[in-house]
């Protein structure tokens, strides 16, 4: 275990604040206030979920920086520190059972944005502070005391009463408790997306919200009902009201009289800088459609890991850049044996993004208040196996909400 701790120490680097007034937002005080654990004598027959030791940083020697919170413009908002257990030491059927937790579908988020743009509904955002500390533990889990906290009895350990960050069941326990709470307020869980909750009043008022871990986006046709929902949530959880929706799931949201725009400009610029393509010559198309890519034998190989990492980062842009889906699905077929031509095609996508890094989706009032679906496919278009490539896109009230391209 000592060797393991030494290895982990190498991954924690002290962070310096960018401003003397910048403070560390610690969640350890919240853990104390939430009654997350009690001290008990160590049971000899049960495994202990080890804690990640606190690492020295700045002038707070007991707290590790686990995350740097950024604003939409890229500047540092605050530094966050939290205690994280070593969940990988947990044993199945002893320390945990089910771990699956629901995650919001981005398709549903775009549907809400289309409705809000067409019906002039407001968009609010909430953040549940220390969300995972609210989950109730069903299992008996013990944790060693963190460094810097010495019990009177050396044989004592922490018996967890609540979930902590790092436990395998924490996301599931948190979402379960949140779901039970909002159902008591009269909200109904959507069957097609269980992270979407709806409420209809007898007076025709409708409120809808979607939750992604600890971030909540709310919309509806009655501002009073939205404020009532915020009050309900504040009774059971520590809620931070972020006001109008501006930044969600790495996407920048802006609203005007014409509609709602969603982009990932900061993400694109960071990716271009990381790959050394910030000063590259922009391309007008994401790929050369006159040439069909396939397996190449007589071509120098490229770094497989680098190719896969770049492809994975580009996939994240699917949320707001549907026009690169076909190009990226094409180059993703060669992740097991990438060649120089494949990497060139991958960088062609980056050059296309350089043309307009702030471009994204725009949701406006549509003339046609309905659902439109378009699809297309070629015939044996793949030069590798002669399989067809198909695709579709769905418009709700004139706004693009879902799309896919598949071989």
From TrEMBL:
It comes from the Eukaryota. Residues 1-11 have a biased composition (Basic and acidic residues). Residues 33-44 have a biased composition (Polar residues). InterPro entries: DNA/RNA_pol_sf, RVT_2. Residues 69-287 form the Reverse transcriptase Ty1/copia-type domain. Residues 1-46 are annotated as: Disordered. PANTHER family: GAG-POL-RELATED RETROTRANSPOSON, RLK (RECEPTOR-LIKE KINASE) PROTEIN, PUTATIVE-RELATED. This is Reverse transcriptase Ty1/copia-type domain-containing protein. It comes from Acer negundo.
């Amino acid at each position: 275990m000592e060797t393991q701790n030494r290895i982990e120490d190498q991954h924690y680097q002290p962070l310096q604040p960018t401003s003397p007034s910048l403070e560390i937002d610690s969640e350890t005080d919240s853990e104390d206030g939430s009654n997350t654990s009690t001290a008990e004598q160590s049971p000899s027959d049960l495994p202990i979920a080890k804690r990640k030791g606190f690492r020295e940083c700045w002038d707070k020697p007991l707290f590790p920086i686990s995350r740097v919170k950024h604003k939409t413009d890229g500047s540092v908002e605050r530094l966050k520190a939290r205690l994280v257990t070593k969940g990988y030491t947990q044993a199945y059927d002893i320390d945990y059972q089910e771990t699956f937790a629901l995650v919001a579908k981005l398709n549903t988020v775009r549907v809400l944005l289309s409705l809000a743009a067409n019906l002039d509904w407001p968009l609010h955002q909430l953040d549940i502070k220390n969300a995972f500390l609210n989950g109730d533990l069903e299992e008996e889990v013990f944790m060693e005391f963190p460094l810097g906290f010495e019990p009177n009895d050396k044989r004592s350990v922490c018996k967890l009463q609540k979930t902590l960050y790092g436990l395998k069941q924490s996301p599931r326990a948190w979402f379960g408790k949140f779901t039970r709470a909002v159902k008591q307020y009269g909200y109904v869980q959507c069957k097609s997306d269980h992270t979407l909750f709806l409420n209809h009043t007898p007076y025709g008022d409708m409120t809808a919200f979607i939750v992604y871990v600890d971030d909540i986006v709310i919309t509806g046709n009655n501002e009073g009902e939205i404020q009532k929902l915020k009050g309900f949530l504040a009774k059971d959880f520590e809620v931070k009201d972020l006001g109008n929706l501006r930044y969600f799931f790495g996407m920048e949201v802006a609203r005007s009289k014409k509609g709602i725009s969603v982009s990932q400009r900061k993400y694109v610029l960071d990716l271009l800088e990381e790959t050394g393509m910030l000063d590259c010559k922009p391309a007008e198309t994401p790929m050369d459609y006159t040439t069909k890519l396939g397996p190449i034998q007589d071509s120098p190989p490229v770094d497989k890991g680098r190719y896969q990492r770049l492809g994975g980062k580009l996939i994240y842009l699917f949320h707001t850049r549907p026009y690169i889906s076909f190009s990226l699905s094409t180059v993703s077929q060669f992740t097991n044996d990438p060649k120089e031509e494949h990497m060139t095609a991958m960088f062609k996508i980056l050059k296309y993004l350089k043309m307009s890094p702030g471009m994204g989706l725009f949701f406006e009032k549509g003339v046609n208040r309905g659902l439109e679906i378009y699809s297309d496919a070629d015939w044996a278009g793949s030069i590798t196996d002669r399989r067809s490539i198909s695709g579709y896109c769905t418009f709700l009230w004139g706004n693009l909400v879902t799309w896919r391209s598949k071989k």
